[in-house]
Amino acid sequence: MEFSGPPLALNAIPNLTIPQFTLDYNHPLKKPRGANVPVFIEDATGRGITLDEARARVHHLANALHTKFNIAENDVVCIFSPNDIDYPVSIWAIHRLGAVVTPANPSYTHEELQHQLDLAQANTIFVNPASLGTALKAAKAVGIPQDRIVLMSRSERPEGYDNIESLVALGKTSDITYTERALAPGEAKTKTAFLSFSSGTTGRAKAVVIPHAAVISNVVQMAIWFSPENDVHKRMAPGDVSLGALPFFHIYGLVVTLHFMLFNGISVVVIPKFNFSAFLKSIVRHKITHLFIVPPQAVLLTKHAETKKYNLAHVKLVMCGAAPLSGDLVEAMSKLFPDAMIGQGYGLTESSTTIVMLNPKKKVDTIGSAGRLIPGIVARIVKEDGSLCKEGEQGELVVKSPALALRYHGNEQATAETFVDGWLRTGDEVIVKDGDFFVVDRLKEMFKVRGFQVAPAELEGHLLTHPAVADVCVVGIPDEYSGEIPLAFVVPQSSAVNLKDPSSVASLKNAISKHVSDNKIQYKWLAGGVEFIDAIPKNPSGKILRRILRAQATKNRITGSFSLQAKL
Fold this sequence. Notes:
This protein is α/β, with parallel strands linked by helices and 568 residues long. Strands 1, 18, 19, 21, 22 and 23 form a six-stranded antiparallel β-sheet that branches. A five-stranded parallel β-sheet has the order 5-4-6-7-8, with helices on both faces. The chain has a five-stranded mixed β-sheet with strand order 13-14-15-16-17. InterPro entries: AMP-bd_C (IPR025110), AMP-bd_C_sf (IPR045851), AMP-binding_CS (IPR020845), AMP-dep_synth/lig_dom (IPR000873), ANL_N_sf (IPR042099).
């Protein structure tokens, strides 16, 4: 059977670019914002930017980017930075020119950034000064000249570099050289806005092609979901203040905590880096009413002694996403925030975020539920044999939505496997009960660490370059703080280790772990450890039987010991 969210009117999604929709258009569902109510608040200084100021800054920056760098239609610009008050300004300026944004994780190594720049074919980089060295190495490797690297800063400007402030000043004083990109009828559905990167089962990250209409659609879908007749507890009110701590390069932060909040007339406090003590102080200092978080933050909020020092009674809504939240944590959150609406949401980069979302008619959503289908979503739960599940049966979630991405850039095989006849195969197994969606397991081999996707094949390929590794399988194992963490089962070269000598075993395990930590972003490090094993179990065609090892890892983690030569 099929499951459907509430209806979505065909004329609800305007044919606009994202900045036109966000800065210029008066959508019927858009909440009013007072002239002096900031769209963004800089966490450290409390400095705010109003809508008019943001609009002018976008215009000046767009003019400078076209005048100085000739950025134009379909050029790709990489933003390699933590959250910054000028991050959204930069996005919208690039979009005004018809160009494409590829947001990159600021913790990437230069090899990881190089892969993104190369696949996206970026020709310009906006970078935080702290990451300039990494950006320079990656840029050199792909042929981006130094003079096309812009510092995401209003103050720091080493000789030979432009920063955001210098470009805004240039655009303000120069003749206007650009014409804002106007869309042909229906073009918002096909015009690329973002190349956002998402890991998959085949190894390195893939570039997800997200059109302007996808982001706009998801904002409107969520706005209908929280329309006055549904939002019985009045949780979406202009003048409220939202937490902008989730990274804007991640689809959750980009669409939900940034664009959706702005649409509701809510100010976003921009927080560049998560530090728990500072995080609590920011919530109180800015009287933040809306918390969009991930499970590790929920764990800290409910279990860290520091939380008890602060009065968080003003919080009106807490939504957790990016990875499943346990029922115990939901209950603990409801005690910590007794007056807040609490629940979860679920989505993917490929769905341009939200598929299901907490029920706005309930104060605390169904324990364990990821939420309900938002308007305009049609879902099927599919068994392994291709037949459709009934309510209560477990199968893969497959969805249709006006917010779906178009494809994977430059990867026809992955596109054909994931985007099928207008449907998106999520790779997640779910169960539906009374309209609530419960995420049960992942069919895809990838897993999530603190909400970030990790592809086992990528780590396995890297580990096999270590001379002591004969074969390897990486699995995600449960972790209360991170959700899951990587553990590597390794078949060592017989000459590389004496399995009867604990010091030899420990030394090689440390060397293998260091081989990953020296070359990969931190969330990909082998926090679950390295375990030696006789052989990696595989089926007759050679495919790793990952579920067997994952089950073994979970079992051994519970008992507290691993066998150095496990017989599987």
